[in-house]
Amino acid sequence: MKQHWQAAKQVIRKLEEAGFEAVFVGGAVRDALLGRLGHDVDVATSALPEEVKTVFGKTVDIGIEHGTVLVLDAGEPIEVTTYRTDGEYVDHRRPDGVVFVRSLEEDLKRRDFTMNAIAMDADERIIDLYGGREDIANQIIRAVGNPSERFAEDALRMLRAVRFSAQLGFSIEAATLSAVKEHAHEIAFVARERIAAELEKIWVSPLPKTGIDSLIESGLADHLPGNIAAHQEKWTSFQTEKAAVGWAYLSFLNGEQLDIVQSYRLSNKIKDFIKYVLDAHKKLEAGWLPLDYFTYELKVLETAYDFAVWTGNTPSFRKEEISFKQDSLPIQAKQELSVNGHDFIEWHGGKGGPWLKEAVENVLQHVLNGEVQNNKEQIRDWFIHDFLNKR
Ligand code: ATP
Ligand code: MG
Fold first, then answer.
1. pTM for the complete prediction?
2. The domain defined by 139-224 carries CATH number 3.60.15.10
3. Is the CB of residue 251 less than 8 Å from the CB of residue 257?
4. How far apart are CA 116 and CA 133, in angstroms?
5. Atom of ligand 1 nearest to the CA of 144
6. pLDDT of the residue at 92
7. What is d(CA 127, CA 140) in angstroms, rounded to the nearest whole number?
8. Where exactly are the structural domains of the chain?
9. In the chain, what percentage of residues exceed pLDDT 90?
10. What pLDDT, on the 0 to 100 scale, is given for residue 258?
């Protein structure tokens, strides 16, 4: 990450030499002031996108309509965004059009929270026009300017406030919070995908329960799919590094209704994960069988286990045993069976049929249960004496 800062500094110097202004801005400055360096470094400049492109040799237009150019000259890719104000707001959504400006002050003014509106120059001098440093010291999330106006412009900001409360453990300042309460219903104007992206940041944050509490207290939960307010305490022990776990838990708390998470337009990969976890959790009540350890991925089983713990039904075995059980299965994949369909057909006298699928499934279960050993002779014995005989 040090390299990122060095590279960004190089980019800033180069813009300055060309006669422009340039500074570090946004989350990277906030996190640096918090003593955290894990962040992509953003640069803001008075140069127009076309001017940025003439200053550097290698650039990529990654969001030219918003004024963002990716500069590749400094070793690390650095996002350089022209100072701008947002154009007209329509329907409580961020505007499509932006207006480029030459003053940093104007650019900082359009930013959401004081902690996100701090700039730093290449000599590490801080430009803090809205008391962001003090708010960081006091762990406060405060809107820049009039909170009610800022949330009316862009309703997503309300959810960002909540998300930052979960990521940083900061509280939302009183006037900012009451403005969220006042505008909470306008979250309905924001695209579901953008809402989902913020919720995912809450799921994987250090303090997801704080995020849930803020969602409820602010009134936003009442305007989001998922009946979040109905299951507040169930989130107390929730913790994850994987966003899909949050979605799965939300569906689980909603009585496994997938249409709730469906409304967040999640990817098929996440939806599949949810289905597997919900299935595995259902089977956990009766106890997992070898076939379950074989069928489900470790992460799926561990997540189902966590659901039981989070809802006060800790299983009678330890979580570490899951991977142990998986590792000690006789086989890890179907291909490891020492027979295949052809063997069965041959033993059956050369003809296939509907029985074949059943035989393969049966032998898999028997091998996993340790009832039949995974070698051809044993399986043939079982097939002829048990399987065919009992039909
Ligand atoms: P992180 O990247 O850790 O999620 P961040 O603060 O960098 O946090 P980004 O979404 O990357 O957040 O945005 C970068 C900066 O752009 C923010 O710090 C803020 O100054 C500004 N910003 C982002 N979204 C908005 C918004 N909806 N309204 C106003 N300003 C915003
Ligand atoms: Mg960022």
1. 0.93
2. no
3. yes
4. 10
5. 29
6. 81
7. 18
8. 1-134, 139-224, 242-329, 334-387
9. 90
10. 80
